[in-house]
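Figure 6 in text form: structure in, sequence out.
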């Protein structure tokens, strides 16, 4: 069975953005929704503007709405499977709307990386390659640039579950991606 990186990444984005997760890696219990956050009003520690800032869990920097037209990412995974690749931004599948971002990058050999940012559930990731699919939330997002020209920074995730095309579970201990997304 061959993975379809873009389809899988899109499904992961929908799951991570739509499931209403807490960003802590724990599922919601279907009870009262969490109190809303004011993601439109960034604070100094959220990394607005071009300075640095970091966030994990449900606290992420406010990112301006818009589509991204160019960019690149370098992705490294370590654990049961090690993987590293460079990828270019996939125009048309890279946008921020109402504070939520889904930004997809693909490599020439078909590997893909998707950065997912949601003001209520935090930062997440999906990575797919020839024989591996990984998705996780509760990631640390550090932005070196966050302005009208786009974003740039680093995403780090620990202990994300991975699966091979045969269904074998893979423990991915670390995911680190440096990325740019320009408008």
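Output sequence:
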């Amino acid at each position: 069975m061959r993975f379809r990186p873009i389809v899988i990444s899109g499904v992961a984005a929908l799951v991570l953005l739509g499931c209403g997760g807490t960003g802590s890696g724990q599922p919601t219990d279907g009870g009262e929704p969490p109190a809303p956050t004011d993601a439109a009003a960034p604070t100094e520690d959220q990394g607005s503007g071009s300075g640095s800032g970091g966030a994990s869990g449900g606290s992420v920097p406010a990112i301006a709405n818009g589509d991204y037209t160019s960019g690149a990412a370098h992705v490294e995974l370590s654990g049961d499977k090690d993987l590293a690749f460079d990828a270019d931004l996939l125009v048309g599948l890279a946008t921020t709307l109402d504070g939520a971002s889904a930004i997809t990058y693909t490599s020439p050999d078909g590997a893909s990386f998707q950065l997912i940012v949601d003001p209520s559930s935090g930062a997440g990731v999906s990575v797919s390659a020839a024989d591996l699919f990984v998705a996780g939330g509760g990631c640390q997002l550090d932005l070196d640039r966050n302005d009208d020209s786009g974003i740039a920074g680093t995403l780090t995730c620990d202990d994300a579950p991975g699966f091979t095309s045969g269904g074998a579970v893979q423990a991915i201990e670390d995911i680190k991606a440096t990325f740019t997304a320009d408008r």
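Caption detail: The chain has one helix and ten strands.
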